[in-house]
């Protein structure tokens, strides 16, 4: 993420509401401590640093996940980053059971470019993003396709964690395609041939050289 935010690492910021004290330690965790004299006063973890929340290609918050268990799931917290005169935890709420929302104010995010994702990427990933922009401009990919590429870039950069579904999909792709009958195989082959022809025509229209491979036949 943004290098200038790393200076918050190793520090903790607290907020007291009613009988609870919340503590946010950037890039580490969020905890809650019940400040009462009850024998079983709750004190626990509301989330551990996990990934960024990215919206409109901008870092907007931090997700703290895998906190203490709560019924059938783990507690998790989204920390919203907003511009403020000093570093402080300004607001805490629980919009849904065991999902918390914290607002963290800091002057480190006040500059309009301070939370842009692009400058934090490696040159290789920036090039990948530039190519995606060009493909979108040339209408060779859809808006959804463009978003998917960006998501892959963010995952590759370690800003987002790949979802379990995606990992499962990768595993499935490793398994070779099998067809129950020759008919099904022929049908699939014809369909793929049509798609390849369409893509070749599209490449020709845009003057992009296409080199076939020996496996085509």
UniProtKB/TrEMBL annotation:
Residues 10-112 form the MRH domain. One of its GO terms (molecular function) is transferase activity. It is found in: Golgi apparatus; Secreted. Keywords: Coiled coil, Disulfide bond, Glycoprotein, Golgi apparatus, Secreted, Signal, Transferase. Residues 117-217 form the DMAP1-binding domain. SUPFAM superfamilies: Mannose 6-phosphate receptor domain. GO terms for cellular component: extracellular region; Golgi apparatus. It comes from the Eukaryota. Residues 182-209 form a coiled coil. PROSITE patterns: DMAP1_BIND, MRH. The keyword Glycosyltransferase does not apply. Homodimer; disulfide-linked. Hexamer of two alpha (GNPTAB), two beta (GNPTAB) and two gamma (GNPTG) subunits; disulfide-linked. The alpha and/or the beta subunits of the enzyme constitute the catalytic subunits. Non-catalytic subunit of the N-acetylglucosamine-1-phosphotransferase complex, an enzyme that catalyzes the formation of mannose 6-phosphate (M6P) markers on high mannose type oligosaccharides in the Golgi apparatus. Binds and presents the high mannose glycans of the acceptor to the catalytic alpha and beta subunits (GNPTAB). Enhances the rate of N-acetylglucosamine-1-phosphate transfer to the oligosaccharides of acid hydrolase acceptors. This is N-acetylglucosamine-1-phosphotransferase subunit gamma. The lineage of its organism: Eukaryota, Metazoa, Chordata, Craniata, Vertebrata. The gene is Gnptg.
């Amino acid at each position: 993420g943004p290098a200038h935010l790393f200076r918050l690492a190793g520090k903790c910021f607290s907020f007291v509401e009613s009988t609870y004290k919340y503590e946010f330690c950037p890039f580490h965790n969020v905890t809650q401590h019940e400040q009462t004299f009850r024998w079983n006063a709750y004190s626990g973890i509301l989330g551990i640093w996990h990934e960024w929340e990215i919206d409109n290609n901008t870092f907007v918050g931090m997700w703290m996940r895998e906190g203490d268990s709560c019924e059938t799931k783990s507690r998790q917290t989204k920390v919203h980053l907003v511009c403020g005169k000093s570093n402080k935890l300004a607001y805490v709420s629980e919009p849904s059971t065991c999902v918390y929302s914290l607002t963290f104010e800091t002057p480190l995010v006040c500059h309009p470019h301070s939370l842009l994702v692009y400058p934090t990427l490696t040159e290789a990933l920036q090039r990948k993003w530039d190519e995606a922009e060009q493909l979108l401009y040339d209408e060779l990919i859809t808006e959804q396709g463009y978003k998917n590429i960006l998501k892959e870039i963010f995952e590759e950069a370690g800003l987002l964690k790949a979802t379990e579904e995606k990992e499962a999909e990768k595993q499935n792709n490793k398994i070779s395609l099998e067809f129950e009958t020759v008919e099904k195989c022929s049908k699939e082959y014809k369909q793929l041939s049509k798609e390849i022809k369409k893509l070749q025509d599209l490449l020709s229209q845009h003057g992009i050289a296409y080199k076939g491979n020996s496996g085509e036949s």
